[in-house]
Amino acid sequence: MEPHGLRAVGSHTSLSEMDDLDLSRALDRPRLKIERKRSFDERSMSELSRHDSPRGRSVLDTPLSSARNSFEPHPMMAEAWEALRRSMVFFRGLPVGTLAAVDNTTDEVLNYDQVFVRDFVPSALAFLMNGESDIVKQFLLKTLQLQDSEKRVDCFNLGKGVMPASFKVSHDPIRETDHLVADFGETAIGRVAPVDSGFWWIILLRAYTKSTGDLTLSETPECQKGMKLILSLCLAEGFDTFPTLLCADGCSMIDRRMGVYGYPIEIQALFYMALRCALSMLKPDGDGREVIEKITKRLHALSFHMRNYFWLDYQQLNDIYRFKTEEYSHTAVNKFNVMPDSIPEWVFEFMPLRGGYFVGNVGPAHMDFRWFALGNCVSILSSLATPDQSMAIMDLLEHRWAELVGEMPLKICYPCLEGREWRIITGCDPKNTRWSYHNGGSWPVLLWQLTAACIKTGRPQIARRAVDLIESRLHRDCWPEYYDGKLGRYVGKQARKYQTWSIAGYLVAKMLLEDPSHIGMISLDEDKLMKPVIKRSASWPQL
Ligand code: GLC
C-alpha cells in the first residue's frame, strides 16, 4: 500500500480548486443553469436508455407527471417554505436554527422542540440555496460555542471535540435574556453521544463557505480549532487495526439500538466526507500542518478499506459465498473471518447482476449485509465510492426500486429485522418493529440525499421519479417524519407531523433539480491522485 497516494490539499485556496463547480461559475447563475440542465439531462437520458433492467422496466417508465417540466414551481413549495420559516428558532433576536418538528397535532413533544444538528443540515442547505446564509452562520457559531461546554454523563466526561446532538433556547423571563441548553447525549435515550454531529458541522461549514464565498468564517481561529477538536477525537492512535471509526449503537440518525454498533456505513461515509471537507479548509499553520498530514494518511487508508471490504456486488457476494474460514497470517483471503453461513438468504435474491452497494458494517467475523440509504448516498457525494461504484449504487436503486423506494422515498435500511432477530438486535424495541421507523421505515428527508446523488451521477430522472412520489402524498399527510410498511404506504405509527427535515429535504431536492449547480455545496469531486482501486475480483486474493 502506498502511504502518500493523496494530493496534499492544504489551504483554503484549494476549496474552489478541488471541486467541479467553483464559486465564480456558481455566481454566473442564469447561463450556468441552462448549461447544466442540458448536460445533466442529456447524460441521464443516454445513460438510462442503455440501462434497462432485466425485468424490462427502466426509469423512463416513470409516471406521466414526471414528464412535465419539473422546473415549474410546485404549489407544495410555497407551503414548505412557510412551514420551514415557522420552525425557525431565534436567540437574542438572531435566527440560529430550526426546530425538529412543529407538530401542533400532539401534546407529546419529547425532544422534537429542539434544534438537532443533523436535522438542521437540510434546512441550512435550503436557506443557502435561497441566498439566506445568516441563519447558517449563526448556527455554526452557536454550536461551536456549545462545543466548549462541559459534557458529562454521571461522573464521566466526554471528549472536548464532541458536538451536541441538539440544543434549545431557553428564555429567562426575569433577566429577560436567552441562553442555550445543549444535549451531548447525556439526556438522550440510551445515553449515546452523536458521532455524526461533528461531521455534519464540518460538512456544513464547507457548504456555507462554498455557497457564500465567505472564507472569513472558516478561517477564524475558533472554526479552525473547532474542526481540529472534532477530528482529534477520530485521528488519535490507539488499539485500532482498521482505519474505520469504532462506534456505539445509535450514535447517528439511527439513534436507537438497531445493530449499528461497530463500523456502521453511515458514520464511515460521513467521516470520510468530513475529513475531505476539513482538508479543504484547514490552514497549514501551527499544528494545522500535522493535522493535515494525519487526515491525508487516514483518507488514503479509509478509502482503500471501504472500497475493498465494504463493497458488495454480485461478484463479491459469490466470492464471500465461497470463502474459506480460519485462515491465519498475511496470506488470508477472508481477512475478517466472515462465515459464509452468516450470509442472509435475502441477499442472494436482492443482488442484481449489475449494481452494488456498501454493506452496513464490516468487523471481525461480522458483515452486516443490510443496505443503508444515507451511507450509500454520502459515499457518492463524498466520492468515497469510485465513479464505477457510484453508478453501481444507482443501478441497484433502479433495479430494486420497489424494495428501496416503493411508494415513499426512501427506506432508511433494507430489509427490516423481524422475529427473533428483532428481539435480539433491537432489544425488543417497540418503536422499531418491522418495517417501521429505523427498522426499514421510509424517511422523506432522505429525498435530498438521493436527489443529490442522482445529480452527481448524472441521473436526475431517478430523482424526479422520487419527487413525484413525495409530491403525491407528503403535504396531504402533513409532512410526516417517516412512513411504515414494506412499501412505505402508511404514515408512521409514532411519526411527528410537520417534521422540519421532511419539509426542508423536499425543498433541497426541488432546488437541486432546478439548479444542479447547487450540488457543489454538498459534493466533492473524485480525488484523481488517489490510487485507483484494484478491480475487486483481481484484488481480493492478493490483499
Ligand atoms: C429521531 C431520529 C433522529 C432525529 C431526531 C429529531 O430521534 O431518529 O435521527 O435527529 O428524531 O428529528
Automatic annotation (TrEMBL):
<comment type="function">
    <text>Invertase that cleaves sucrose into glucose and fructose.</text>
</comment>
<dbReference type="InterPro" id="IPR012341">
    <property type="entry name" value="6hp_glycosidase-like_sf"/>
</dbReference>
<dbReference type="InterPro" id="IPR008928">
    <property type="entry name" value="6-hairpin_glycosidase_sf"/>
</dbReference>
<protein>
    <recommendedName>
        <fullName>Alkaline/neutral invertase</fullName>
        <ecNumber>3.2.1.26</ecNumber>
    </recommendedName>
</protein>
<dbReference type="GO" id="GO:0033926">
    <property type="term" value="F:endo-alpha-N-acetylgalactosaminidase activity"/>
</dbReference>
<feature type="region of interest" description="Disordered">
    <location>
        <begin position="43"/>
        <end position="71"/>
    </location>
</feature>
<keyword id="KW-0326">Glycosidase</keyword>
<comment type="similarity">
    <text>Belongs to the glycosyl hydrolase 100 family.</text>
</comment>
<dbReference type="InterPro" id="IPR024746">
    <property type="entry name" value="Glyco_hydro_100"/>
</dbReference>
<dbReference type="GO" id="GO:0004575">
    <property type="term" value="F:sucrose alpha-glucosidase activity"/>
</dbReference>
<keyword id="KW-0119">Carbohydrate metabolism</keyword>
<keyword id="KW-0378">Hydrolase</keyword>
<dbReference type="Pfam" id="PF12899">
    <property type="entry name" value="Glyco_hydro_100"/>
</dbReference>
<feature type="compositionally biased region" description="Basic and acidic residues">
    <location>
        <begin position="43"/>
        <end position="55"/>
    </location>
</feature>
<dbReference type="GO" id="GO:0005987">
    <property type="term" value="P:sucrose catabolic process"/>
</dbReference>
